[in-house]
Amino acid sequence: MAESARLVDLVQAGIDEFLDGRAPLLESIASELAPFVDYSRELLRGGKRFRALFCYWGWNAVSDQDTAGDPDDIRYRELPSVIRAATALEIFHAAALVHDDIMDNSDTRRGLPSAHKRFEAIHRDGSWTGSAEVFGRSGALLLGDLLLDWSDELFQRGLRELSNVGAADAARREFDRMRTEVTVGQYLDILEEQSWQTYPDAELLPRAHRVIVYKSAKYSVEAPLSIGATLGGGSLGQIAALREFGLPLGVAYQLRDDLLGVFGDSEVTGKPSGDDLREGKRTVLIAIARAKLPLNARRLLDELLGDSALSGQQVSMLQASIRDSGAVEQVERIIDHNVKQAIAALSSAPISTTAREQLVRLTDMVIRRTA
Predict the structure, then answer these.
(1) Closest by alpha carbon to 55, among 226, 228, 239, 242?
(2) Cα dihedral angle (8, 53, 94, 233), rounded to 10 degrees?
(3) Of the four listed, 175, 203, 217, 346, which is most buried by Cβ atoms within 10 Å?
């Protein structure tokens, strides 16, 4: 995975360079704006860079380009555009995390205080008037918006450097579609948290699956792959094959995330154990558990799920109830099914051999992760 590791380094360098370029502008406006760059730096230092990696290997899949190749080759010269696009995806992801933490009232992100908590601390340390919580949410909301603007700025800069105008236009459409899908997917997520009781039990699982597809699966794997492939001028057949691989893998990715949100080790995930239980996430895992639990246990789950004040003992009780229902094993089987579906699509895809091998390795990383 040496090439993937090199990409990760290039993306981090791109992030640092971009933020270095934005810092003087904010400083020229007001010194109080320093937290926008500082918090962005810290948030963007972490993460697994999956979206950047899928974007790059989507490009490589249709170009079969060795990045250590001939500098006179047109595809080699366009590699910086791909790196900018991959970097823009990571900044977009950071924006989504900031907004997600506001909506979920999450106190931590990657082992650090979430953005709205950090802005709250500024208010409290300054002994300012008004509500620290309101200021914190407002500051974080604007930080997320700024990161969205910056991701678009960087993505567009990369597109301008492409020699293939048609590929740039196609990549722009893919990027715009991704932003729409993940935004409405996020709405569907909070909708399910609040409205689930108004729907028949039989609809809860397919509705939870719909959230997975649009909030995470497309945006985490399928869209980065298709953006990369369009940047490389991939054919309709190549892009379709990568989508057939990316969507089921994206579903498996989010299902693993759902398991970690309930059972993950806080020392590894950087978030409290059982955080999804306190946030009231109506995931596929919860939908399956509800269908399997006895009536009394189901009522208790419904009563406690979403209580931000859940004690450690209550979290442990809910974890045991979900595990004993057999829901975890069923979700693991669904993950396995989706991975097999993704690998099957990849095996016959008209893409480069190198990219196929690397995407198989990335599949293993996505599924076996612990954070």
Answers:
(1) 228
(2) 120
(3) 217
150 phi-psi bin (left φ>0, alpha ψ -120 to 50, beta other): alpha
Q: What value does the mean pLDDT of the chain take?
A: 93
CB neighbourhood size of 24 (10 A): 10
d(CA 291, CA 369): 27
As a whole number of angstroms, the distance between CA 249 and CA 188 comes to: 20
Q: Do residues 184 and 40 both lie within one domain?
A: no
| 207 & 142 share domain | no
Please indicate, yes or no, whether residues 153 and 293 belong to a single structural domain of this protein: no
Q: Which of 141, 161, 181 is the last residue of a domain?
A: 161
Host H or E run for residue 113: strand 112-113
Give the Cα separation of 40 and 43 in Å (integer): 5
3-state secondary structure of 108: strand
- Concatenated DSSP letters of 199-257: S-HHHHHHHHHHHIIIIIIIIIIIHHHHHHHHHTT--HHHHHHHHHHHHHHHHHHHHHH
Question: What's at 165, amino acid-wise?
Answer: V
Query: Which residue is it, tokens 């109080």?
Result: 32
Q: Which two tokens stand for residue 221?
A: 């794997």
108 phi and psi angles, rounded to 5 deg? -130, 160
Per-residue model confidence as pLDDT tens digits over 322-347: 999 999 999 999 999 999 999 999 99
Which helix (H) or strand (E) covers residue 133, if one does?
A: helix 132-160
Among 106, 135, 161, the domain boundary falls at 161
Q: Which residue is it, tokens 């306190």? A: 278
Token couple for 43: 């948030």
pTM, to two decimals: 0.94
Which of 74-88, 239-253, 255-269 tops mean pLDDT?
A: 239-253
Same domain, 133 and 200: no
Residues 184 and 250 in one domain: yes
- Other C-beta atoms closer than 10 Å to the C-beta of 202 total 8
Shared-domain flag, residues 296 and 329:
yes
